[in-house]
Amino acid sequence: MASIINLDECTYNTIIKGFLNANNVVKALDYLDSMRSQGFAADATTASLFLGFLTYPNVIDADKALLQKYVLDSDDYTANVILMLLTDPNVSDADKALLQKYFLGRQG
Length: 108
Known about the structure:
- This protein has helices at 9-21, 25-37, 44-53, 61-72, 77-87, 93-103.
- By secondary structure, the protein is mainly α.
- Helix 1 packs antiparallel against helix 2 (25-37).
- PPR repeats lie at residues 8-42.
């Protein structure tokens, strides 16, 4: 007998976090699309996961570009501003660390 798993926002965020931790941006974005198609909105936790991913040390430029395009195509103005600042080479590391601390809850 097959079991049916009902996914909620928390479950989607956990799955997305797992794919991001494995540097699989494409699959994480697939689950974000699935989450939205099931009627769930991406919340602050979801945004934090994707924006935090950009600060991982081993993220390749292609994944950053893909995520940047995806987020910039969304309606989330705050996420767009933070994303642009985190990926701007003219923003100092100290300022990026402050963004991480206050918006992503990460000490860096």
